[in-house]
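Could you help me review a protein record that somebody else here produced? This is what I was given.
***
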Amino acid sequence: MSAEPKEKLRDTVSFRNSEISKEVGILTSRGTAAMVNISNKTSHEAQVVKVLTLVALVFIPTSFAAVSIFIRALWNVIFDVW
């Protein structure tokens, strides 16, 4: 008779462990999906930053040159150096 309660207790503990394992698996799956989503967003943001960097690489030096030419021309007009 003493073996029967032990078996029931073992079965109960085993069932509970399987339920806990199932819940841990579900939570892990959700965490993994969230990490994949974050990774995809980060990849997209990195591509946007690359494009903005290339645009800045072209336009910033060009704007410095244009401002320099404009200021030099304005200086010459003001002081009539032409």
In short: The longest helix spans residues 3-79. The helical segments are 3-79. The mean pLDDT is 89. The CA atoms of residues 29 and 40 lie 17 Å apart.
